[in-house]
Every structure is written in structure tokens, then in C-alpha cells.
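Entry 14. Structure prediction run on the chain below.
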Amino acid sequence: MKLGVNIDHVAVLREARRVNDPDILNALFVACQNGADQITIHLREDRRHIQDADAYNIMKHSTLPVNLECSINRDILNIVTDLKPHRATLVPEKREEVTTEGGLDVIKYEDEISYAIELLHDYIIPVSLFIDPTIEAVQMSKKLGAEMVELHTGTFANIYAMLHSSLSHSNHSIKELQLPRHELAIKLEKSIADITAAAKHAKKIGLEVAAGHGLNYHNVHEMMKISEITELNIGQSIIARSVFSGLAEAVKEMKRVTAR
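Output returned:
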């Protein structure tokens, strides 16, 4: 299993104080040296964490492939074509969201996504689409010309956390998932089935398959059971773990957990 380490949350911590500490390049080097297979970053339109200079420096200094997540905003796409990452992953964005809340609506934004993919392909940049785990989204991704899909695992992760962690007893409990445990268990089973079906169909029609969002040391084993998924992109849980164990050990541990 390929592990993409998302280092955005190092930049989140830096931006909280507006100083160059922690240094995003230090995070890059540590991840590269301790088991990451690729580096993932998200250059958001609002620049809440990764900045343009970060993206250019990471592309310049990374010894690993860089997976650059971005919106379909044309100004952002122009930066991506200049950066020429190893892959661009097109994701949805809302300025008011805390984090990416769902997959890209490949039906609603078909024309805009088609333009983005054609532009990126003109610069020989492979494209992945970050989508909800549905057959329809997988089919449209193939039609649009993407080489890869990344299945959004946020719904799965939320249900898993409400069922198997202390989330339901915290201030961040998810209201719509405050359900009896047997109902959560049914929802979790369905969510895993949806991801599995989408992954199988994607591989069947010739798409590479990744998964990401909300994956951590406790729930990632469920994704490891799906053989069609060959890449996981994980960030927040690795950076959170590094507060206690250090980034090098946090990356090594996630690599151990996701080894097949």
C-alpha cells in the first residue's frame, strides 16, 4: 500500500502564529526519510495553510512524488501547471468549511472539471478526482478522462469514530450520528460496502484507486481489506500523533500499519 503523507497540518500550526515554525520543509524531509511514499499537499484558494512559496519549495526539494490537491479554480490551475506536480488531485472547496466535507460533484461541474483535466493533461500532469464512493461518480470520472480516483472516506471515518471512540462524548460529537450503537454499526457496514463497490468498479474500468479523509491508526485497517485500493493519503492523524511521538516515529508507525 502506498502511503501519501499530507503535511498541510504542519502549515496549519505555523499559520496559527504567523511564524516559520514549524518549518514545512523540515516536515517534508522527515516524512521523506521515514517511510512516506509520496507527499500530499493542498493549495487552497484561501491559503489557510500551504502557501504558494511552500508549494514551489516542496516541488523543488522533495525526493518523493508530490500529489498536489487543488480546486478547479482557474487561477489555482494556472499555478499547478507552473508547478508541474507528479499528480494533481481535484477536490471541492468551500471557504467556510473546516476541512473538505465531501467529494467533488463530478455531475454538476462536468464542464469545469473537463476543462481542468484537459488543461492539466496539456502539461502532462496526471489527474485524480476526489469523489464520493458511488458508482455514478466513478463512471463520470472515467468519462472525464481522469487516470485515478481518490475515494472520500469521511463518512466512514465519522461513523467509525462515533461508534468506536470517545467522539460521541465530546464537544465535537456529530449530531446526525447520535444514534443507538446497533444503528451506527449498520451504517458503518453500509459505508464500507459503498467504498468497496466503488473501488472494485473503478479498477474494473481501468482507474487507479486511492482513499483518504479521516483515516487514522484505528480505522485504517478497514481500508486495508479492500485490495483495489492501492494508495492512502493521510495527514491530520499523523501530525496529531507526532505531537506525542515525534513526526519520524508517527510516519514510521503509519507505514507499519498500512503495510501489506
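The chain has one domain: 2-257.
Filed with the rest of this week's runs.
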